Amino acid sequence: MPNLVVDSNEQIVYLNYVFFIIEDCFTIQAIYIATQTNKIKEFKAENVELLRILAGKQA
């Protein structure tokens, strides 16, 4: 599973991530489609606020 990479300026670099869903106030699940396998995988991010920012950019 590819990692969500954040540099020192909090610029977000991501691979194969298509969209992000905010489930509720406390949980953010990032869903990406692995283009080679066409399967959907999920992970929960530890840095919730940063993923909120990314979710806003993807919306």
What topology emerges from the helices and strands here?
Blueprint: E1 5-6, E2 12-13, E3 17-22, E4 28-34, E5 39-44, H1 48-58
Antiparallel strand pairs: 1-2, 3-4, 4-5
Account of the 3D structure:
It is a single chain. By secondary structure, this protein is of the alpha+beta class. The protein has one domain. The chain has one helix and five strands; from the N terminus they run βββββα. A hairpin with a 5-residue loop joins strand 3 and strand 4. The protein is globular, with a radius of gyration of 11 Å.
Summarize this, please?
The protein is α+β, with helices and mostly antiparallel strands and 59 residues long.
Keywords:
single chain, 59 residues, alpha+beta, two-stranded antiparallel sheet, 1 helix, transmembrane, membrane, transmembrane helix
Please state how the strands of the largest beta sheet are arranged side by side: 3-4-5
- In the residues, how many domains can be counted? 1
Average predicted confidence as pLDDT: 48
| Broad shape | globular
Taking pLDDT < 50 over at least 5 consecutive residues as the criterion, the unreliable ranges are 10-22, 24-44
Derived from helix and strand composition plus strand pairing, the structural class reads alpha+beta
Transmembrane segments: 12-34
Keywords: Membrane, Transmembrane, Transmembrane helix
